[in-house]
Amino acid sequence: MEYTMKLTPEQAAVLSGSKGETMAKVMETLVRYGELFGADEMVPVTSTYNHLVTSFGLKALAPVYELMDRLIGAGAVSSQAFSVDPKPLDKHVPSNFLQNLVFNKFMYTKQDFYEGQLKQLGLLNDDAFTCTCYMDEVGNTPKKGDILSWSESSAVVYANSVLGARCNRNSGIIDLMGSVIGCVPSFGLLKDEGRRADWIVEIKTTKKPEAQLLGSAVGMKVMEDVPYVKGLDRFLGTELDERATSYLKDFGAATASNGAVGLYHIDKLTPEAVELGDTLIKENARVYVIDDAELQRVYDSYPVVWKKKDAKPKLCFMGCPHMSLNQLVTWTERVEQGLKRSGNAKVVIPTVFTAAPGVLKEFEKTPYAERLRKTGVITSYICPLMYMNNPLCGKMPVITSSNKLRTYTTARYYTDDEILEQITKGDQ
Fold first, then answer.
1. 62-73 and 21-36 are packed helices; what angle lies between their axes, rounded to 10 degrees?
2. How far apart are CA 372 and CA 121, in angstroms?
3. Number of domains into which the chain is organized
4. Rounded Cα–Cα distance for residues 376 and 346 (Å)
């Protein structure tokens, strides 16, 4: 088969079988994939580490395990150590006998086997299970301009937007293959033109918008396009401090899950917007104005898919994507204050805060960890989405302030303030 893509002599040699049949098939897959999107060349992956999306050992993923075995058997392991999305199970997260039966006997039956494969392929370490791999406590933070071969939509949009790295929204398989071969097809968000903005989003709200609500509004409007957001610096400032990056983490996750955004620019704040400003905006860019009424409209549009719409919540999940250290500290204080106002000693709804193992270890070094335990809140490293994929868990009335979790499961979305009210006060 003939290819139109221009390959280096080394890349062409791999395609011809210089590194064996398996590596040739990996290169062929990437070339074919790239040509579908108009790529004319392969470019080297320059990031130190990779990040994979598939972290769960579902029996239905047998073709993935077979592919992993073939790569391992051929010695075609990842050229990069990598992190991977969160684990699906944690015995500390509330679940009943039947739910556990489904988890362990029907759903994640291959979990131990699959984690063994990941270690053979190049897993960074035993704590490298998180969707927020870019946090300092995890250690997989790309540099500006780095070329990545990542999957996990919330991590990709953060790396592109907040860090200024370059990565397309890859599938888990394409992601792994790019890391194995050490190069990726150059198109889309890897190109300067692909990073220019198709939309101007004007924020005209009277107060700081809820991150995941704003991200949802933007994602549903622009879909896979690139938005340039103006007016958000009024609330976030012009420094990428912990407060701002935590906000953008949640904002970006919602744009990626409620739409298909892989990159956004925040005027006066994100690296490329600071460097290039309005020159990033295309001449024919469309305009989307978000005011208080528009945010309320988006909020009111969310369907309630609970069987009993007025059911009392049985569980609350916070941390999809995983919470930052700053968020854990802030939310500890908020829960304490909420309980004090309500007169309750502990949260009235079982509540789970999820974060990366490395973040949780750092949190444990602070006095806030014990303070949070006293409120009854549970901390965990799991993926709430993978928990909710259990049909028996999906039937439960679960609340969250994550628009990503709302989009992919039966969980019901509430703002942070509403969540706080429900978990600390309940029906009082």
1. 130
2. 37
3. 3
4. 5
Residue 181 backbone dihedrals phi, psi, to 5 degrees? -85, -25
Domain assignment of residue 380, given as a range: 315-424
Task: Decide: helix, strand or coil at residue 200.
Answer: strand
Q: Are residues 66 and 175 both part of a single domain?
A: yes
* pLDDT for res 79: 77
Separation of CA 187 from chain center: 22
Residues 386 and 415 in one domain: yes
Among 301, 324, 348, identify where a domain stops: 301
C-alpha dihedral sign at 345, 348, 352, 353 = negative
Query: Other CB atoms closer than 10 Å to residue 233's CB: what's the count?
Result: 17
Which amino acid is located at 116 in the chain? Answer: G
Q: Are residues 264 and 392 in the same domain?
A: no
Tell me, yes or no, if the pTM score tops 0.85.
yes
* 163 and 49 belong to one structural domain: yes
Place of tokens 């780095």: 146
Q: Quote the pLDDT of residue 4.
A: 86
266 DSSP β-pair partners: 229
Specify whether 49 is located in the same domain as 155: yes
Q: Are strands 50-52 and 351-355 parallel, antiparallel or unpaired?
A: unpaired
CA distances 366 to 236, 330, 371, Å, are 26, 13, 9
* Tokens read off for 11: 């890349």
CATH code for the domain of 365: 3.30.499.10
The pLDDT, as a whole number, for residue 302 is: 97
The DSSP secondary structure of 283-297, one letter per residue, reads: EEEEEEEE-HHHHHH
**Domain end among 301, 330, 363:** 301
pLDDT at 428: 63
Domain co-membership, 55 together with 174? yes
Which tokens go with 228? 């340039």
Residue 83 lies in a domain: yes
Q: Are 316 and 420 in contact (CB under 8 A)?
A: no
- DSSP secondary structure, 352-365, as one string: EEEE-HHHHHHHHT
Q: Which residues of the chain have pLDDT under 70?
A: 1, 428
